């Protein structure tokens, strides 16, 4: 298998690339000129310079590959210019699919997100069939991921073999940016969690999630999507696990939604608009947190052989990696 992987310099993509390498695949990795190559250290792979926003570079980079793992995405919950995110996530996915079609690629695995599924106000775990529409998507990240997922599903139902995977919230080592989830761990290590809000996430071990991508290639049905998830946990439960791992205290003060919303407004206005830095809290993240993002991986268990594993080991690896890498 000659696999073309986007996003391999990032968190989840680097794990997908390593799983493929361990299984004997020949790898060609799309790398932007500005990408940090840290996550590629020790990885046997060919690199090709290109950008999701440059279709011509994608066709050239993909030539000769028979499989594509499109893992790259602009994953930020706040951005000054939302058009940047749409260009990368929506237009970039359209360009990847077109390049794959022109190159005669046999299979594409498209990495979407659990953010595109429909979450219930009562906290009941969502699945692939939960009712949802673009109007339910909060913020440019969720909207752009929903739109790119629709492009991939449509391609998979129109002749190309395209399988979509929806990771929940990966956690583990090599989270170089870090992602919004990684920042929870880093902020906890820096003792920047004086309080918590009543929300919840589904955490998945990033290494298991990468193996799920390969299972989707081998067993997934074209034009279908599969949630790759782990444990459904409230934010308080996550912080308690981090406290047990690190010995640091877990916050005991629960912040009411109205105060969290006000904090998001202030942080976005001052940090984002005036200081021109990414805020720690935004209005969109607070609005997302009003619903617990609990999910079911039943479909992946039935069709891909997916197994849910406890997330404690992944959290421990994340803590050790962030500490060893100087983040905290």
Summarize the topology.
Layout: E1 2-6, H1 11-22, E2 26-31, E3 46-49, H2 55-62, E4 67-70, H3 82-103, E5 107-111, H4 139-156, E6 162-167, E7 169-171, H5 180-189, E8 195-196, E9 200-205, H6 206-219, E10 225-228, E11 231-234, H7 235-246, E12 253-254, H8 257-274, H9 283-288, H10 298-304, H11 312-324
Helix pairs in contact: 1-6, 2-3, 3-4, 5-11, 7-11
List keywords for this structure.
alpha/beta; 7-stranded parallel β-sheet; 328 residues; globular; Rossmann fold
Sum this structure up briefly.
The protein has about 325 residues and is an alpha/beta fold. It is about 45% helix and about 15% strand. A 7-stranded parallel sheet has the order 3-2-1-4-5-6-10, sandwiched between helices. It has a 3-stranded mixed sheet with strand order 7-9-11.
Order of helices and strands: EHEEHEHEHEEHEEHEEHEHHHH
Rg over C-alpha atoms, rounded to the nearest angstrom: 19 Å
Could you state the CATH homologous superfamily of the domain at 2-171 and 206-229 and 294-309? NAD(P)-binding Rossmann-like Domain
Low-confidence stretches: none
What is the average of the pLDDT values?
Answer: 91
Strand order of the largest sheet: 3-2-1-4-5-6-10
Q: Between the first and last Cα atoms, what is the distance in angstroms? A: 40 Å
CATH topology of the domain at 2-171 and 206-229 and 294-309: Rossmann fold
> What percentage of residues falls in helices of 4 or more residues?
40-55%
Total strand count, please? Answer: 12
Regarding CATH, which class of the domain at 2-171 and 206-229 and 294-309?
A: Alpha Beta
